[in-house]
Write a structure and sequence with these properties.
alpha+beta; 6-stranded mixed sheet; binds flavin-adenine dinucleotide; Polyamine Oxidase, Chain A, domain 2; FAD/NAD(P)-binding domain
């Protein structure tokens, strides 16, 4: 280890930022994580609903990537779940094996960030390399221009469109990020007084939905026994066509389609409807971005593989590189 402990700024407390933080704090680095949101998780965040909560982002982790699966199995709050699965045309399908985090998906990111400083509700607006006391440093400012400090390296772990302006100190990185076009997805989570028994995961062809998931059937979910919580995800073409509608109108449409599908007429106790502007994206499969001279890098699902396992892989690959270069 160099004489001075390296201090790394990470922008984004999603899966990539939190995995990177975990690896770097374990290697003895100081880590400060900035996020514009109140909580951690990014696209693994959850929404409060009356006396319970529901996953509003990625509802579970599929385990197609064996190394990601092995890692998940070691996480103390990860639970294997095999939801009862049917198609939108009511055909029984094989139960998939997926992982969920107890009591909510975002708890994984919070646990991984132990040992780092978390600065919430802080939107980073500017990152630039600077010489300070004869040493190369990188400085951060928030969107109002207020200084946030100087660091030995800054890592942008946000969706690509939000990363592009933060990577301008290395124009080729900013260009790579600006070329990514994420998909849009409307998602609603709702707590109802319904009691359905048919399915916990519904997938297939549907004019509105990509999938519907009974969130309250996941292992370790708390809340009233008298209610059911559903996660409903509109498909990309419907979401794109309805991108500019207000969230109440979108919710009414998603709720009616769900009630028709389940053949119920229930009371909605509580709900949240959210438009994910940067839901998912193809990846450029470069693993990560890192410029050792400018001390600026990036990790996330747009850099390696796709989805959660891509974010996890990208963060691990960048952690290996930073530990090699800065320790
Ligand atoms: C509805 C939905 C369903 C999904 N389903 C699946 C699935 O089934 N399987 C799967 O593998 N993947 C799924 N995904 C994708 C998966 O959630 C993401 O790939 C993964 O969580 C990305 O993690 P990340 O850390 O790269 O980015 P994010 O989770 O987006 O984290 C980035 C963080 O950066 C913060 N941020 C952005 N800009 C700034 C700024 N300027 N200053 C400070 N903070 C900033 C954001 O607030 C956010 O917290 C789904 C995503 C959504 C939205």
């Amino acid at each position: 280890m160099k004489e001075k402990t390296p201090h790394i700024a990470i922008i984004g407390a999603g899966l990539a930022g939190s995995v990177l933080s975990n690896r770097l704090t374990e290697a003895g680095f100081l880590v400060s994580i900035y996020d514009k949101s109140r909580g951690t998780g990014g696209r693994l965040s959850s929404a409060r609903l009356n006396d319970t909560s529901a996953d509003l982002g990625a509802p579970f982790f599929d385990i197609a990537d064996p190394e990601f699966q092995t890692w998940l199995a070691t996480q103390p709050t990860a639970r294997l779940w095999q939801p009862k699965h049917i198609s939108f045309s009511n055909k029984a399908l094989t139960k998939p094996s997926v992982y969920v985090i107890e009591p909510r998906q975002s708890a994984l990111t919070r646990a991984l960030m132990e040992g780092s400083s978390f600065i919430s509700q802080c939107r980073v607006g500017y990152i630039w390399p600077e010489k300070k006391d004869g040493e190369e440093q990188i400085i951060l400012r928030d969107e109002q221009g207020k200084g946030l400090g100087s660091f030995d390296a800054a890592i942008v772990a946000t969706p690509a469109p939000q990363a592009a302006p933060l990577l301008e100190a290395v124009p080729r990185f900013a260009k790579r990020a600006s070329e990514i076009e994420p998909t849009i997805n409307w998602v609603a989570v709702l707590q109802t007084n319904a009691h359905t028994s048919t399915a916990e995961l519904i997938t297939g062809e549907h004019p509105v939905f990509s999938r519907c998931i009974k969130d309250s059937a996941k292992p370790g979910r708390s809340g009233s026994d008298r209610s059911e919580v559903w996660f409903i995800e509109a498909n990309t073409s419907w979401s794109t066509a309805n991108k500019d509608r207000d969230s109440e109108a979108v919710f009414d449409c998603l709720k009616s389609s769900l009630f028709d599908l389940l053949n119920i007429d229930a009371e909605v106790i509580s709900y949240r409807c959210h438009r994910w502007l940067y839901s998912r994206n193809a990846s450029i499969d470069e693993g990560f971005l890192w410029d050792a001279a400018q001390r600026l890098g990036a990790a996330g699902d747009w850099l390696q593989g796709e989805g959660s396992s891509g974010a996890w892989r990208s963060a691990n690959l960048l952690a290996d590189q930073l530990i090699k270069d800065l320790q």
